[in-house]
Amino acid sequence: MSKRAVLEVIALDVEDAVAAQAGGADRLELVTDIAADGLTPSAATVAGIRAAVDISLRVMLRPTDGFAPGDVDRLVGVAGELRAAGAEEFVLGFLDADGGVDLAAVERVAGVLDGCRWTFHRAIDHAADRDALRKQLDGLTGLDTFLTAGSAAGVDEGLPTLLAEARRRGEPGYEPRILVGGGLRLDHLPALRTAGVDAFHIGGAARPDGWQGPVSATAVARWRRVLDR
Questions:
Q1: pLDDT (tens digit, 9 = 90+) per residue, 206-227?
Q2: What is the CATH architecture assignment of 6-227?
Q3: pTM exceeds 0.90
């Protein structure tokens, strides 16, 4: 297809970031502690990566593996520190105990970003009602992307949902871009690209040696070549 697809790669440090850019990544998701599914990196890490690469960065705003009301206060302060370190785009998302979007928490954190663009992350895949979540977030300042596998179990299970949501692009709650990630493989791409999905997120797929090893520029370049066909 002629339209260049966005390739986002998870980066934990400067080495990852440099390799991802060299391989053709368009954007990085910056996190720490991948064993906890990715938490907020330090301001020093963000500043170091911002100085090392010139592609877009989206910084995770997630303080703990789980979420408590007090975390919002922490994130409001952390968001300011990260912006001072050069962060201009973010990743966030909170659910309540019933699996609905914690709208108050999302609005408060998004409100201190002063219009910065942000992704609602894979919390959507754990929501009790995906459609309701999308519609509750409709029109929220800065929200331009949903990172999703279509299912908490990953893209294999979620592919039908992803294709169905892609067909609804432009409806209320479905204007933000779909960024597919979570067990994504190269063989998933043809169906997703045919459906009009144009943004893809990889983590482990960029690391041939697993999460204990760094991002491989060669692995990222392979995804770039396939997406550019």
A1: 999 999 999 999 999 999 999 9
A2: Alpha-Beta Barrel (3.20)
A3: yes
